[in-house]
Amino acid sequence: MRYSTSSNFLRLLLIHILAVAPLWLTAQENAHLLSVDELFRLGTENSLQLKKSKLQEVIYNDQKKSAYTDRLPDIQVGASAGIIGQPVIFQRGLSHPVRPETPDWSQNYNINLTQPLYQGGRIQAQIHQAELKEQIAALTSADNEAEIKLALLQQYMTLFSYYKQREVLARNIEESEHRLKDIRRMKKEGIVTRNDEIRSELQLTNDRLAYQEADNSISIASQQLDILLGLDESQLIAPDTTLLYTAVSVSDYDTYVQLAYNNYPGMQIVRQQTLLAENDIRLTKANYLPSLSLHAGNTLARPLSTTLADMYNNNWNIGLSLSYNLSSLYQNKHKMHEARQTVQLQKYAEALLMQNIRIQIRTAYTRHKEALNRIEALKLSVSQAEENYRIVQNRYLNQLSILTDLLDASSVRLDAELQLTVARTQAIYTYYELQRTCGML
Asked: How far does the signal peptide extend, from start to end residue (predicted)?
């Protein structure tokens, strides 16, 4: 009797392997195995949001270069030519006009140079402003990149759940088919009723429908990732399952908080915005100070402006120009107050973000620890559910339990395995979420 049971088990196992293997191989051949590194690389390369951020960096870089050119001299070259009208000279009041001989054509060629020497620090402040904006743009790109990676990872983790769900349902379908055969055999022998056969058929139908839904979910999730990664939309994506079993080291809460204060792009952006507000104070103060510049020029013209003799005249000049805007004494008062208040506003924003960072890290840290503990607990639950299903199945085949107990045991085992997969994916996601909040993603 033992030999017969063992032979039947080996025969059923062989049938199961031969039935599932072709489907598994076909799925593996058609699916593109995508690692996390490739996911991040393709996602950042094809992200329109990231391309927009990178383009903003280029724009601010050009603005910085333009700000540097304000320190260079302003050079103007000009030329003019025209017809000279007949002059009329009145030597005795408005009577007896005299029309002297004059040339009919005038020409003027000039070059002027203005070199700013002192602008109250305005030029240097404008350069610093452009540099800060460029740094903020770069930090924004880094922040967007990290956010994109985390969003991609969430969809990637969802694929894990769908594949696991399909795998478990495929096994349940195979077992349901064998169970239905056994029930039909037992029904012919008069051991069970038609009711057990109907319930088993319903369970098999539900499992097949759930399998089809899981398969469709894989196709939908793959298509979404294909679009984001720039791949063929019809390409199925298979996640790297080794990621679920990769051991990662977790630091303590205070370490993550300190890392976030130093590396989180959002934190650095707020600090740069504070520096930008402080720089606006220096720009506003420059309006209170005088401006000094060096100017030089050369002019070649004909005819002579004094005698209108038809001859070329060349002259040059060089000097200093000093100006002070007296109206700034009353026009700039409220601007200075606004600039100082903006600095204080940015400091409050920086302190508020530090509070939010601590909250985010504590949440992600706690959820990560929770997921790790849940994995260990669910490992035991899966083992117990497997053992429970085996016991109930044997009892049912020996007519010591009813079909409802067997179906309940199968459902408990299915839920336990799916919950374990969800816990594994949640542990990976919360780990990367910690890395993102710390600026390490």
From this structure: none
